[in-house]
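#structure-requests
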Amino acid sequence: MMKRNLLFWTVAAAFFAAVSCTNKSEEVLAVRLDQNSVELVKGESIQLNARVVPDQEAAFTWFSQDEDYVTVDQNGLVTAVGLKKAAADSDQITPVSVYVKYQNGADECLVTVLPLETSKVEIVYGEDIVKIDPAQSIKLEAKCYPENADLSDITWSTDYAAVATVDSKTGVVTGITSGFALVKASFNDYVYDEIRVQVNLVQATSAAIEPQDLTLEVGEKKQLKARLEPANATDKLVWSSANPTVASIDSETGIVTAKSFGTATIKVQAGKVSANCTVTVK
């Protein structure tokens, strides 16, 4: 009987010793994060995971160095809130530290918040096409989305500057001559919006040549100028000479050349109106 009792108490003592060792936590030597440096675009989140060494269950405490720029919840979910600049007038971004702590151990992750770029550009105009007259200007506006984007610089361009020009920074479109042009507002090569610009045809109601009378010597050349009303008329000028052996003229440029003695009538045609100039060669 005594041997059986001795065996019972020996087994019981071993069992309770084993249970006691199982329930006792090991001393924590270190706290480790799965990432110590991350980059997030403003608005993005990432889950950080922590563990202790030696491995065991632990209730971690999380906190951010500056919650104005980076937040972290008590489960380790990190969210980029804003860009922390090295200085107000600097483009250099400063990382924000996120810490995890358990007992006397801690670890750190540096979080760099990157600028949020424009993902959509929209030209704001009430019509599908911009209609303007030659020499008329209009300022176009463009919106960038998301509206809280940090990078939203827009560059304006036109595919046909001979018809309509556009200021690359302000978006001011100016009509040059009748026709069509495509004006683009671009954030980059992939994010942009376009709108068609129509420069209206303006017909001349009257024409005149300056000077109206001209005297040249043989071999002399002179540039004639046509004055149209209205001044922004878009009719093409066509020049001609009634006596090209005396005075010839370039049909496009209006440069007259004295050829031989005599008189010639120079004509400019602009749509439905025309004007004459008398050239005397001596």
